Amino acid sequence: MLTVHQLRKKYKNQMAIEGLSFTIANNQCVALLGPNGSGKTTTLNMLAGLLRPTAGTIQFLGKPEINRFELGYLPQYPAFPPWMTATEYLDFAGKLSGLSTNKRKQNSEEMLAFVGLEEVKNKRIGGFSGGMKQRLGLAQAMVHEPKLLILDEPVSALDPEGRRDVLKIMQELKKSMAILFSTHVLHDAEQVCDQIVMLKDGRMKWTGSLVDLRNIQQTDTFALEVSENLTNWLPSKSYLQNIHFLSPNAAEFTFNHDKGRDLLLADCLKDQFTIIRFEQKSYSLEEAYMEVVNQ
Fold first, then answer.
1. Which of 7, 25, 49, 283 is least buried, going by the fewest C-beta atoms within 10 A?
2. How confident is the model at residue 217 (pLDDT cuts 50, 70, 90)?
3. Contact indicator for 249, 230 with CB cutoff of 8 Å
4. Residues 6 or more apart from 192 whose CB is under 8 A from it?
5. Radius of gyration (C-alpha) of the chain in whole angstroms
6. Distance between CA 36 and CA 201 in Å, rounded?
7. Is the pLDDT of residue 282 over 80?
8. For the ABC transporter domain, which residue ranges apply (predicted)?
9. Is the pLDDT of residue 199 over 90?
10. Section 92-105 average pLDDT
11. In this predicted model, what pLDDT tens digit does every residue of 135-147 receive, in sequence order?
12. For the chain, what are the domain ranges?
């Protein structure tokens, strides 16, 4: 659906984005993940057609230009006319997208119901909470039924309840359209995205799934827990080193033999140990993220 190749953006002497490449497939949710100032908003603005790239190509729906009628966009700080009602605002957004009168009415009602604003659709936006405004922003981005939804920090300014509501809506939207959203919060990406594109200082540091991110950051340390006492048993194994006991029944260690795992499991079976847990330790997702972004 969307292919970005060697995208660059330069402001005078400052390179904001350099050599960014990634793809988004139909119904895929991709997170642009990175600290503040990493180039996330600049990237989204180029993809939304609001900024002209210095170099590189953007291919959308097989064409070398952005078709804004097939794209929905929600900026980080959306502005709403406080005198308008939610229904009036969506009708206005639908008119800008070229929808007919009947289609605007139908889609506006459907989107307001979808984002949970049906009961306040005739109230003025000036009286809406931050969470309600964000849901209205999502509704305007979807009212023309786009193929790709671009969201800039969609939950960063919300309280926990509002954050949960918007992330839940995004989960549902994945079923009918592709989503690209930016965030600096790893937990938000973990909740909804299929892939991440990790940015720092305008450069891509890593791309892949969160499972891939966790797996590539595995350590050489293993953990074993059994029902029996390991205090004297583990130190007798010549293929183990760096043994650290967590309890008499559990320990962490590394192997000094290529077939150490096989030897350990064979010895456990031979001595009829009841294995409760045996695993290779890995970084937490947050630790893996920090390790990659700081490389």
1. 25
2. low
3. yes
4. 29, 31, 167, 170, 171, 174, 179, 181
5. 25
6. 9
7. no
8. 2-226
9. yes
10. 94
11. 999 999 999 999 9
12. 2-214, 219-283
- Answer whether 182's CB lies under 8 Å from 47's CB: no
Rounded Cα–Cα distance for residues 289 and 34 (Å):
9
Quickly state the pLDDT bin for 52 (edges 50, 70, 90).
Answer: very high
Taken as a whole, the chain contains a residue count of 295
- Selected from 3.40.50.410, 3.40.50.2000, 3.40.50.300, 3.40.50.1110, the CATH number assigned to the domain covering 2-214 reads 3.40.50.300
| Model pLDDT, residue 103 | 95
Q: What is the mean pLDDT of residues 262-286?
A: 89
Angle at 50 between CA 46 and CA 56, to 5 degrees: 30
Query: Which two tokens mark 281?
Result: 């330790």
Binned at pLDDT 50, 70 and 90, residue 174 comes out as confident
End-to-end CA distance of the chain: 31
Nearest-angstrom CA–CA distance, 143 and 45: 20
In terms of DSSP H, where are the helices of the chain?
A: 40-47, 86-96, 101-114, 130-142, 160-173, 186-192, 210-216, 260-270, 285-293
CB-based contacts of 182, cutoff 8 Å, min separation 6: 31, 32, 33, 34, 40, 41, 43, 44, 76, 151, 152, 153
Distance CA 41, CA 152 (A): 7
